Amino acid sequence: MGLLNEILKGVGGNALTSEHHNMLFDTVAGMISNPQTGGLQGLLESFKQKGLGDVASSWVSTGQNLPVSSAQVQQVLGQGQIQQIAQKLGLDSSQVSEGLSKLLPEVIDKLTPKGSIPSEDLLGEGLGALKKLFGV
Prior knowledge:
Elements: H1 3-7, H2 18-33, H3 39-49, H4 53-60, H5 70-77, H6 79-89, H7 93-111, H8 120-133
């Protein structure tokens, strides 16, 4: 079982396939690299605006990652975006929220190993490396 499957283990019970895991990773990568939404910085700012700045900052820092719940992910991203992702992936919104609650902290943590947000070029390289590491 790959690292991505281990991270997402238990999300959605047996309903999530490796393909779903890969699509969730691609969704997170898209959020992090989308210049229209501010990329990683914009995503972190969204958490801050919803009162979860300390949680998101922990994923960037070199210390312990604070957990985020599926309800908090839904609060930050909004029901509409969660529904849109769920429809695209053929999942229900609770599976998407739960998967993102597991994947976002892990991916952001691995992209910021020195405790700071990398440049866009390095961020792209990091996502490519994570894709290989996660077996996507």
